[in-house]
Amino acid sequence: MNAGGDMDAGMNPAGQERALRKVELTVRRKLAGLLHGDYTGLRLGPGSEPDESRPYHPGQDDVRRMDWNVTARTLDPHVRAPIAEPELETWALVDASASMDFGTAAVEKRDLATAIVGAVALLADRPGNRLGVRIAYGTTLGRIPARAGVVATRRALRTLLALPRLAPGYQPTTDLARALTLLHKEHPRPGLRVVASDFLDGGERDHDGPPVWQGPLRRLATRHEVIAVEIIDPRELELPDVGLLTLVDPETGRRREVSTSSRRLRERYAAVADAHRAWTRAAFRSAGVAHLVLRTDRDWVRDVAAFAAAQRRAAARRPARPGREYR
Hints:
It is a single chain. By secondary structure, the chain is of the alpha/beta class. The protein has a 7-stranded mixed β-sheet, with helices on both faces. A two-stranded antiparallel sheet has the order 1-2. A two-stranded antiparallel ribbon has the order 8-9. It has helices at residues 13-34, 68-74, 109-123, 150-161, 176-186, 214-221, 263-287, 300-317, and strands at residues 49-55, 78-83, 89-95, 130-137, 140-147, 192-197, 225-232, 244-248, 255-259, 290-295, 325-326. Helix 1 packs across helix 4 and helix 3 (109-123) packs antiparallel against helix 4. It has 2 domains: 13-42 and 84-326, Rossmann fold; 49-83, no CATH class.
């Protein structure tokens, strides 16, 4: 994988094709079946061309789109609503850090990241629309060029499924903040940006400040519509009572044995996990992005369908509230 360069990872043909068919069948059949009719997909539709004016919603609308002529005539603040671009360029940023190679339920977190790329490709599949993928791995940011069509989507999914796995302690720490900054700089054309990550690279371990990725995420949202897909596993929220347990940090290789039979330890672990979730939710709200939570122990297809339906309803009414979480 070369930083900033195109990617075409090698594949194990039999295994990768089976996995690819499973992803395609799940996304195209099950998800399409849950979304009946001519749905609008994930995007609410900000563009560059002005349309009709509508009342200004504090905290939701960009003051730079203020329609001063209508405001002066009506004495009420109005903004000029933009028309969605006829061709949508979507870029998905996939976190390929070692912490994504984890799952104690039906799938691993990296599987959900691949699946959400397939779902986005389906929901944004319109004539002229293009989907590209950036893959954050250590300090590098791999690139699958933005292209339209089923063939391009299959190539992107194959590449994601073929990403290498390394033994704990041999994978570089992924800098999510840097990846978001590069995504913003290298793809300036307004469109849809989907960030699939567990967002565990927060920087502020004691939660006394915002995550290091909050600022880059907010800057990304000033130009694009951004959906933050937070992928979590149930064991990251609470520990089961299974006696002595060996925990391994997948990025550093550090090992630690803990006694999960201790009720106090389990309660402390759950409290810290709850605090971290609240911390990340606040960061998404502050950044002004839509927030979708996917879990390895739940039906992610229904969660994505519910999210897309909520986006459709919000688009029919008005722009969605920044930072709103769909679960």
